[in-house]
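[step 3/7] inverse_fold.run input=structure_tokens len=709
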């Protein structure tokens, strides 16, 4: 229990809101809280003696719970925001039935609702089913929303405590001064005073009180004072010198009587030329236990006595009430402006639909989101549907109609609209709740609409990027700043033969081939540092152990502030390309039919043999073979048989040569052999005889035929 529990309960019950019906002005705040903080539960909770009662609730069905198991019963003991990041980790709440059972609360944050007198009567709270923590900006936003709820509670209190004859125009800033001027004239007449003032008591940053007038008698005495009065009176003259008679009333909070101001030591601050001050009374005005205003009266014949205050008490009490009401109205306007600003910052608009009357009420921000003018557009449900993108209209209407059925609390949907002001297509996230009568029929719908266009477009871009990433033919690896792998695509797994789980957390050197030295990698990292990119050919090793070439591009990945987050590597397998290059190279040097060297390679081999012969003083023999009878064979059995004969002949001739000799096919049935490293011409005779024997009867060519070449 907090200190002063009895006074706190009196302040709570004086509000007159316990067990009252739901009100849009409070429900609007909880809707905005739930949307702004993305939580399932938002409450305006008032803590009574034995219970906590919900003036507004979203996300829970119960209207009240026992105080003994409430979170808010703990929260009202704190002066600031009360936050429980994880209820299961807090011994005060780990076994709470609302944690272990429905609604399974894992997170709570509440901002106190403090009324005049400083009593905390309840909390504006949000609850989630998962642990979390508010950011500093979110804490400020929660406090701002609580201020709005607090102001609404104070407005309720004013409605209950105001006199029937409260001049409502005093709450209007444009008419406040003229209204209080009339009240001042009434005071002066009743007290027989010559002049006076009515002012609001404010406090500077250092806590010192000062006075700002709502009404003051014009006692300007020269041109300068007349000009000053004319300039400052409409917006309120400010008095900060506390070494004065009215300063004594401000600092003491008690009435100050001075019937001999000339000799009163508290007198001060009157400039030369000021009208004579023969008598003065300063009357502090209190409301709700706070000093809210000050009335000053001067120059009553015979001076001032305490009995005059008893006589003026009813009017003075109402003036204090009016000043407090005027101040609260200003605070309420400021709170509503903050609420509107929060809606504008969050791009959230609110709406309420009365199903019985069909009346649809939109907030100003909602009009802005849809590009509409409040005074021009008549907000109705059919008119709203006309603003929904034609392709999404059926889905929105179906979702809304389905939510009207029993058992549905509401729904949420993301759909597109066509903004009326410029025709732009915007994405809107709507959250809708219903209020039902005792029979269960929906009588009111209310919700929020938030422009999430940028978020949706970013999500679409991410989905496209993810699709490209996952379905790319090139292998992609992403590492953190330390070089550890944090993601790979399917193409990389296919290329390396490793599963994704085997690669996560590894360094890419995991598949290094060992073909590159340290200097190679130093150049790579130097290029990355200096140019922000490295591109080149590298050899890697598959899981099978096979080494393969690939074209690799590495680039750093910075975050939004430009700091290094990691690296992205994109590699293309060059194995097929290299094999094709080898095939092309082979075709350029070897005969396609027999696989023997062709003219080009023959010329290279002959040049090499001649060079070596010159160097070692040896001889080279060049043997030319032209087959007789091949044409007749080809004509008789066909070209396919002729090709088989040439292949067999090539193998036979090749086997007749020495190691280091070269056999080439010039074309058709013409072959050339190069025999290097001969000491004399006679050394080639054994090879020639073997070649002639192989040519005369090519083994295995066509066994069914007797060949003589």
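[step 3/7] decode complete -> sequence:
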């Amino acid at each position: 229990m907090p200190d002063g529990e009895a006074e706190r309960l009196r302040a709570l019950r004086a509000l007159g809101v316990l067990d009252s019906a739901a009100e849009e002005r409070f429900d609007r705040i909880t809707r905005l809280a739930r949307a702004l903080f993305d939580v399932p539960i938002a409450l305006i909770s008032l803590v009574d003696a034995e219970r906590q009662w919900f003036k507004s609730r979203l996300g829970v069905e119960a209207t009240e719970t026992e105080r003994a198991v409430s979170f808010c019963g703990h929260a009202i003991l704190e002066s600031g925001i009360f936050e429980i990041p994880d209820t299961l980790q807090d011994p005060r709440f780990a076994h709470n039935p609302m944690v272990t059972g429905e609604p399974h609360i894992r997170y709570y944050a509440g901002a106190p609702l403090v009324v005049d007198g400083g009593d905390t009567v309840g909390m504006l709270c949000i609850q989630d089913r998962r642990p979390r923590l508010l950011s500093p900006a979110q804490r400020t936003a929660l406090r701002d929303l609580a201020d709005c709820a607090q102001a609404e509670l104070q407005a309720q209190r004013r409605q209950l405590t105001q006199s029937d004859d409260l001049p409502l125009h005093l709450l209007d800033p444009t008419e406040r001064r003229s209204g209080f001027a009339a009240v001042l004239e009434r005071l002066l007449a009743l007290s027989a005073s010559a002049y006076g003032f009515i002012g609001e008591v404010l406090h500077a940053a250092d806590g010192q009180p000062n006075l700002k007038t709502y009404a003051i008698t014009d006692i300007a005495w020269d041109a300068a004072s007349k000009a000053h009065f004319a300039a400052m009176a409409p917006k309120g003259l400010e008095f900060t010198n506390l070494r004065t008679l009215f300063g004594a009333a401000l600092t003491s909070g008690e009435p100050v009587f001075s019937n001999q101001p000339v000799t009163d030591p508290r007198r001060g601050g009157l400039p030369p030329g000021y009208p004579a001050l023969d008598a003065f009374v300063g009357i502090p005005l209190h409301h709700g236990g706070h000093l809210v205003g000050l009335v000053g009266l001067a120059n009553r014949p015979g001076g001032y006595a305490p009995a005059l205050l008893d006589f003026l008490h009813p009017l003075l009490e109402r003036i204090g009430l009016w000043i407090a009401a005027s101040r609260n109205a200003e605070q309420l306007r400021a709170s509503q402006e903050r609420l509107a600003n929060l809606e504008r910052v969050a791009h959230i608009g609110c709406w309420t639909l009365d199903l019985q009357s069909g009346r649809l009420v939109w907030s100003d921000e909602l009009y802005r989101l849809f590009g509409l003018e409040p005074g021009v557009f008549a907000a109705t449900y059919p008119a709203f549907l006309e603003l929904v993108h034609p392709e999404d209209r059926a889905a929105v209407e179906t979702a809304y109609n389905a939510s009207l059925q029993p058992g549905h609390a509401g729904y949420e949907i993301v759909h597109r609209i066509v903004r009326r002001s410029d025709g732009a297509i915007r994405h809107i996230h709507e959250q809708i709740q219903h209020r039902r009568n005792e029979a269960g029929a929906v009588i009111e719908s209310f919700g929020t609409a938030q422009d999430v266009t940028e978020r949706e477009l970013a999500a679409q871009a991410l989905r496209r990027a993810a699709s490209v990433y996952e379905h790319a033919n090139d292998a992609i690896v992403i590492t953190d700043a330390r070089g550890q792998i944090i993601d790979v695509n399917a193409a990389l797994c296919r290329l390396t033969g490793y599963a994704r789980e085997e690669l996560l957390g590894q360094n890419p050197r995991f598949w290094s081939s060992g073909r590159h030295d340290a200097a190679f990698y130093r150049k790579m990292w130097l290029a990355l540092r200096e140019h922000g990119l490295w591109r080149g050919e590298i050899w890697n090793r598959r899981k099978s152990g096979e080494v393969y070439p690939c074209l690799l591009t590495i680039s750093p990945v910075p975050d939004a502030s430009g700091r290094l987050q990691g690296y992205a590597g994109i590699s293309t397998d060059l194995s097929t390309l290299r094999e094709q290059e080898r095939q092309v190279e082979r075709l350029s040097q070897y005969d396609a039919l027999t696989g023997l060297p062709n003219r080009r390679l023959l010329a290279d081999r002959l040049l090499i043999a001649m060079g070596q012969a010159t160097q070692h003083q040896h001889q080279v023999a060049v043997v030319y073979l032209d087959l007789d009878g091949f044409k007749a064979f080809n004509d008789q059995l066909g070209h396919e048989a002729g090709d088989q004969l040439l292949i067999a002949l090539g193998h036979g001739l090749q086997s007749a040569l020495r190691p280091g000799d070269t056999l080439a096919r010039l074309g058709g049935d013409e072959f050339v052999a190069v025999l290097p490293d001969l000491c004399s011409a006679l050394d080639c005779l054994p090879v020639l005889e073997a070649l002639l024997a192989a040519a005369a009867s090519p083994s295995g060519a066509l066994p069914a035929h007797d060949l003589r070449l």
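[step 4/7] annotate
The mean pLDDT is 85.
The first strand starts at residue 41 and ends at 47.
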